[in-house]
Amino acid sequence: MSQSSTTAMLVTTLRAEIARLAPGDRLPSNRDLVRGHSVSPVTVARAVAALAAEGIVVTRPGSGTFVASRRSRTPHTAADTSWQTVALGDRSVDARTVTDLLSPPPASTITLAGGYLHRSLQPTKALGAALSRAARRPDAWDRTPTAGLETLRSQFARLAGADVGADDVLITSGGQDALSMAFRSIAAPGSPILVESPTYQGALAAARAAGLRPVPVPIDADGIRPDLLADAFATTGARLLYCQPAFHNPTGAVLPPERRRQVLDIARAVGAFILEDDFARLLGHGGPLPRLLLADDDDGTVVYLTSLTKPASPSLRIGALIARGPVAHRLRATRLVDDFFLARPLQEAAVELLSTPAWDRHLRGLATALRDRCATLAGALATEIPEWTVAGVPRGGLHLWVRLPGPVESATAIADAARAQGVAVSTGNGYFAAEPPGAFLRLGFAATADLAQLSEGVHRLSKAALAR
User: Fold this and answer.
1) Which of 73, 144, 250, 287 is deepest in the core (most CB within 10 A)?
2) Counting Cβ atoms within 10 Å, is residue 141 exposed (0-12), middle (13-18) or buried (19+)?
3) Which domains does the chain have, with CATH numbers?
């Protein structure tokens, strides 16, 4: 008889004997098991190890082997994890507000809820070629500096166009990682943070996960209102403003030059930071791009954030934070503690991508495609659902912000009715740090396959509006 079959037989025998014992009872010593079952010490050791791996026994060196606590659970019974509610305590990480940003819609559903480019708009060939070239580099799998590859940091510095250099840039794993790092690095848990109202709901989730208290500052067609911003700083004592001055998500608003100067002056006057989220810098629709807040900042008030994910692909998780002074050292320390450094192959692929003429061609083609899609969506809404109010046709970005007639609850009702018609939309409630002032939808025009599908999505939405 083989050793393995002998061990299996002993395991079966011991399992039956253990079933008659109580939890905590001590098993016979290994020497007694050898004598009692006429097997070798190796067989006993293997059998006990197998029982321990199953959780049937617990071995305590120097004391012996004991019957483990039994759980009233079968393979078909769900585990009782209710104890975790007490252990976890108060909820600070709430992913419910961002679930719809990532949840794939059911098959045959037209998505107007997405925040990423449809595959047909992504530079897939250029991405594949860049990744292939990066993988062939002899140092492709070496570690990188904590701040990221110098060549990639230099490219982000040039992209920003302000008076910054590679040493001011910290490479991140996309924009959401940059948000999380910045919030945790700049503001202490429990402190207030000023945010536009409405604002990107992923930023609200990241701020709350960092233990911060988002305080809304209303915006209008030209972005955040400086008069209300000054009041908010004065009443809350906040030392951080999160804002999106260019192609604001979700409204598409662009902060005009005069307001930009006012926002900077207000923050400087109270000694506060501005986290400038420039996620849509490469998502313009062909017109001139707004000037960065960073470009007019001489004293380190602005911490700048951008990313390659939106204009390229959801899986190109490469972003950057640009900062100067002690806050830059704080951000690098956070990166070091979090995960030491980012994986090199994806950074190398980003360097390759940004260095090729194909990237510039992609951006030019993308600008035209986004402009056409934006116009198509806005036109279809005006024709099919004229009672809905579009906040404005943006000159960049991926979304339209639409106000619905009726109470706040009507947005959820419309979204549910739309789902029944086979179209996915994002309700506006999650974009407000406090109570929403009305019913809103954020409608995306970049996640559909083509213009025809975009128009069909609006047609289905009109049916949903009538179904209510």
Assistant:
1) 250
2) exposed
3) 3-67 (1.10.10.10), 95-120+359-467 (3.90.1150.10), 123-356 (3.40.640.10)
